[in-house]
Amino acid sequence: AQSVTQPDIHITVSEGASLELRCNYSYGATPYLFWYVQSPGQGLQLLLKYFSGDTLVQGIKGFEAEFKRSQSSFNLRKPSVHWSDAAEYFCAVGNQAGTALIFGKGTTLSVSS
Amino acid sequence: DAGVIQSPRHEVTEMGQEVTLRCKPISGHDYLFWYRQTMMRGLELLIYFNNNVPIDDSGMPEDRFSAKMPNASFSTLKIQPSEPRDSAVYFCASRPDRGTQETQYFGPGTRLLVL
To answer: Which has the least CB within 10 A, B11, B25, B87, B109?
Structure first.
């Protein structure tokens, strides 16, 4: 069955510290992978996506993610977190038709000063 | 571009009432998606349209839910009759049809509370 697992429900990071949010997927074909961010009361905004090629993907707001096929993972990273990064982060896997997106349950990021 | 527009942003209704959620996709986008977000189940795809035609409605929870897209710039999701367990945030998303690597753009969502 196709699924996305985000093992961490809630993470707290100090401002300026590095961040890694975990994402594991189960998908029968070549996965298309996405990270979205949702600020309170807002819709989802795409941070980055992976379709093929270089397994290290750069996104907006200083985020990057690395696709590791052997580990079925697509972890999101940021070297230095800002208070404005506090939000909920969703990992998703999509089909090759670009239609169905399967989302993880999300990880809430809190940033402490 | 104004992005995906959803209305209302908040809706409070009583059990048994009809609820209609509205979505205006980004101009030129050929795909439109309806999602539901709950604490228990996370984000789930309910239905999606391509060129105003419903393609996959397997995520629609039951017959009380229906969705239409009468034209390229408007879609509705209707719940009749509504039940408390329908309380959730409903998102609309759209994307262009320029290949498989396009991004879905999400609206701000409608927060529905059924009492």
So the answer is: B87
pLDDT value of residue B54: 95
Closest CA to A99 of B37, B29, B16, B83: B29
Contact of A104 with A92, CB cutoff 8 Å:
yes
pLDDT in tens, A69-96: 999 999 999 999 999 999 999 999 987 6
Radius of gyration (Cα) for chain B, nearest Å? Answer: 13
Structure tokens at B100: 């498989």
Question: In this complex, how many residue pairs, one in chain A and one in chain B, have their CB atoms less than 8 Å apart?
Answer: 52
How many CB atoms lie under 10 A from the CB of residue A84? 10
In eight-state DSSP terms, residue A8 is -
How far from A55 is each of A50, A52, A58, A69, B90, CA to CA, in Å? Answer: 8, 7, 10, 9, 33
Asked if the C-beta of A9 comes within 8 angstroms of chain B's C-beta atoms, the answer is: no
Q: How would DSSP label each residue in B43-54?
A: EEEEEEEETTEE
- Cα–Cα distance between B42 and A92 in angstroms, integer? 12
Distances (CA, A) of B77 to B12, B26, B40, B47: 16, 17, 21, 10
- A105 contacts B56? CB cut-off 8 A: no
